[in-house]
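Data deposition worksheet. Section B asks for the primary sequence of the deposited chain exactly as it was used as input, without tags or linkers unless they were present during the calculation. Section C holds the resulting structure in token form. Section D is free text for depositor observations; keep each observation to a single sentence. Incomplete worksheets are returned to the depositor.
Section A, Depositor: J.P.
Section B:
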Amino acid sequence: MRKVLITLVVILTLTGTGYWSYKHYTKSFSQESHAQFNQAGLKVQVDYCQPAKKGRLIFGDSSKALVPYGKVWRTGANEATLLVINKDVSLAGKPLKAGEYTIWTIPGPKNWQVVINQETGQWGTEYDASKDLFRATVPAYQVSQSQELFEISFVPELDGTNMLLHWDHTEVRVPIRVQ
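Section C:
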């Protein structure tokens, strides 16, 4: 019985250490980042990791694209991107209650679908469509300035903010408005 218990402890320790090491190893390639908006009582926070372009084709129809059009993307790297909102809002025209969610996207050449999912804490490849609250379509813009690291930021608006997703030559604006 003692040998079984010792073996179990060793296995659990090695598994935990391996998982922790893997998470920190992958984050050395795509650093953690946070985007925050706090104005007129509305607080929005996004926790995500920033993949780098590194000369690669980022978005496209090609099988060589890092983020292919028409496929669900974790909207960053590593863990699923976390969205925390302190008030009821409309996000891309859809009602969203205050709370914690994950943001997923389905990129396209002219429009992206923003997916709000109620599951949090999962690795970014563990997408479960059955937990989606909604999908909303927003326009995608081609911009002249190339962005090496994927970046999420906020631009204040009178009744809320626009969340900007910017990588390579693509920029997407997701309107967030107080209800």
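Section D:
The helical segments are 2-27.
The mean pLDDT is 91.
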